[in-house]
Amino acid sequence: MRTINNSTGQKWADLRGLVVYIPKQGRSLGTVEDFFFKEGTNSVYALLVRTRVHGDYSLPVRALQTLTGGRVTIDNENMLIKALPPLPTSQDLIGRKVVGESGDEVGTIGEIWLDTEPLIAMRIAGLELVGADGRSQRHSKLFTANAIATYGEDTLIIHDQIARKLR
Q1: How many angstroms separate the Cα of 137 from the Cα of each of 31, 159, 165?
Q2: Distance (Å, whole) CA 149 – CA 1
Q3: What are 34-72's pLDDT values in tens digits?
Q4: Which candidate, 37, 45, 57, 70, has a CA 20 to 30 Å from the CA of 88?
Q5: Cα–Cα distance measured from residue 127 to residue 112, given in angstroms and rounded to the nearest whole number
């Protein structure tokens, strides 16, 4: 079931907490706390950046320069936007039940994999299921975002063919 390319796919847990840095000024602005995505396309629209003094901002993905060395680099602080987009976040996905189109429960989302190449077109590449105890399974079950048929109110509905393989 694993078809995520490790050279471009990264676990969200590894990206969360990265420092947002401006190389020209040699200073950091805050840390990446979440991301906003568009249902249906699975494209990541912006990162949620928490600053120490001014609170939360959104950072559009198109403003990212690099994602290396434990930090995200951008041109300047004007790239941060105070208004947060009315889009779902990673926190809206993690813990959500995954069901097949026929209604059979497959599991619960525990981890999100992002495709970060090219950086300006970041998208959800795949999702990893967790066991009933909420921890990663010994042999994790991973499926690509292409398997998503639709987003339910409190569920993620995937194509039955993929759901059968994940059971």
Answers
A1: 29, 22, 16
A2: 17
A3: 999 999 999 999 999 999 889 999 999 999 999 988 899
A4: 70
A5: 5
